[in-house]
Design goal:
mainly beta; Immunoglobulin-like; 5-stranded mixed beta sheet; 5-stranded antiparallel beta sheet; 33 strands
Amino acid sequence: MIASKSIRRIWILGFKFVVCIIVGVIASNALAAQVTLAWDPNTESDLAGYRIHYGTASGSYSVHTDVHNVTTYTVTGLTAGQTYYFVLSAYDSSGNESGYSNQVGYSITASNVPPSAPGIPSGPATALVNASAIFSTSASDPNGDSLQYRYDWGGGVLSSWGPASQSHSWAVAGQYAVKVQAHDSLGAESAWSSAKTVTITQSTVPVVMDTDGDGVPDSQDAFPNDPKEWADANRNGIGDNADAAAGQGNLAPDAPLLTAPVNDSVVSAMAVLQTGPFNSPAAGATHGQTRWQLFRDEDDACVLDIQSATALTSFTVPKLVLDEGTPFFWRAQFIDSNGAASGWSVYDYFSTQTTETDLNANGIPDAQEVPSTADLNKDGVPDLQQTVIKSVKMEGTTAQTGVSIMETPAALAIESVESEDPRQPDLYPNNKPQNMPFGILNIKIAVANPGDQTAVKLYFLEPVPAAAKWYEYDTAADRWIDFSAHTEFANDRMSATLTLRDGGPGDSDGVANGVIIDPGGIGVADNAYTNGSASQSGSGGGAGCFIDAVNDSGRFESMIRALCLLGSLILLRSPLRIKKIRVFFLGLGRE
């Protein structure tokens, strides 16, 4: 008889992984684990065998396996990274079964996967002997581990492990193949990147040539064969002397001088483009506008083309226009108050820094990831498991926002979504709504064709206040604008649909290039509150108090609070109004 007896001891002998490679629509690695269990034998004469019971929760066993009369058994088909709990029971020849043995828990360690090979290092293609040159790259890690990098500067010279951007100088002229490797925090190393060829030359004193004998070296002479002309400030192909002789009507501004970023410097992805001052030979002409253009170095693609009457000698590139760890080049053009345009400046080059704020490379900053169970569009599938929606925690608030391109064929992908705290005083300050309860949202959408129009649906964790609208930041005008003409809210105000066009409304990069960059947010305009009452949609009355910003303390603040209290007491006579006060004050609580 065995029913009242139990197995005395069970332990895990060992484990090993079996690696399976699955090749299909998406290539991936699946790790299946197996664990070998061993136990002390029972001594009953009628012992018939044992059963193993296990599951992924302590005390709950979903799998039951008859292993017959053995004292070791290997359980296969387990998942790496999962914890399992095992117990045994024994049974006799009459079918009587014992109670469970002691429970054994075991966590199966997931395998560490090496990082991807870094991208080709960005940096200058030429440099002088003993001159320091900066190179930068980036790589991703499947396990989300932090990465370090080392550079092979050519000729067997390796750097120490360190950041993605590193500098080096060469003492001998020649050509060098620069490549880079990454490793994660567990020591797994990536493959080496492809090499970038760098040519190092000796510094020499150039021979000064002055072909036309006008005293201006040919290297600085726009007309080296004409002794009467040497400058062409507006780059129109006509020398300044000839321009002046032709009269003021033909004079255009001097071409801009680019001052930053220049000379392959490494800057933030929100680069600040700067030029020297405006200058024009035309009497009375003032600086009217500046045209700013940015290009990606690897394929010469134009990523920004903005003509601004406000950003004249300094322009901050909007968030998400520039990818991190990438080389770019840029130029600028001045337009005067008469509409005359200068020639373009010369091009200059820079690269963007790598911040490693999105280590899992899913287009959402790691600090702004929503919980794994978040399902803002309520389709029954967590947002983090889908590519057609990206949801973020809104910086500076408790709100969450989902960005969806489901059922919008013109949109190919949501490349990036980031939020920003609207309370930052220097963040797009011009005409910014004073109350932005859901924060500022930056979206980067890839569309099928340049110039395509697409719909983007936003999902919110709570209803948008009735007095609120969707506002967009207009890059060229450097101000916030009401985007209601291109926005449609759902009846329950839990979602809104934006209509955006590449290179048109809702695209802050100003160019039809297949990418829409859209900074915006829910806002309540200052004039939405008048005489202490919030504007409400729908029928019925309603009132409430709203303090935009109390800069003065003391009597003014006390007076405002007293007025709010008095208005609330008056409205207590109406149940309908009480309800609306509650809804409104909940909205205030989120400010």
